[in-house]
Design brief:
By secondary structure, the chain is an alpha+beta fold. The chain is built from 3 helices and 7 strands; from the N terminus they run ααβββββββα.
Length: 160
């Protein structure tokens, strides 16, 4: 199932095939063949622009994040965790910026934050619905609506 759903999800996210090819060996080790891909998205870490680019893979059972270095384009596993092991999942959709900021506590206790730029206002709400569906089984869901944000929503790019 994973192989039938992964490539259509990368196409929907408009991720170029060379990027998918570089991340695929890392991602393949972390998913089961029966996992269904819900979302694939490029993302960044707010406040860490030099950390490289990240690829987030959300399946029906796991969240996997791989990191590609800026210089040599080497891909490393950043995080792989079953969805029930993630705590305090929170996300803030912003249709105006066409982005979603996602935060959760990983099984090792580290609070992770990712900025997902998303093309299209309708797609922002689609990804919001995917997160609502995927994280409904986590220990605590803190979903904040407009005007009730757990942290300031800012673009990871410095303002000029």
């Amino acid at each position: 199932m994973f192989y039938r759903t992964f490539l259509p999800a990368t196409s929907e996210a408009r991720i170029p095939i060379p990027v998918v090819s570089r991340h695929m060996p890392v991602l393949r080790r972390c998913v089961a063949p029966e996992d269904t891909t819900l979302l694939v998205a490029r993302c960044q870490r707010p406040g860490q622009p030099m950390a490289g680019t990240f690829l987030l893979l959300l399946t029906n059972r796991h969240l996997i994040v791989s990191r590609e270095g800026r210089l040599l384009h080497r891909v490393h596993l950043h995080l792989a965790a079953p969805l029930p092991d993630l705590a305090d999942a929170a996300w803030v959709p912003d249709a105006r910026l066409q982005a979603i900021e996602l935060a959760f506590t990983a099984p090792d206790g580290v609070r992770e934050r990712f900025w997902l730029p998303i093309r299209g206002v309708g797609r922002v709400w689609h990804v919001d619905a995917l997160f609502s569906h995927a994280f409904r089984g986590t220990r605590t869901i803190n979903r904040y609506g407009p005007g009730r944000r757990p942290w300031p929503l800012t673009s990871p790019a410095p303002a000029h």
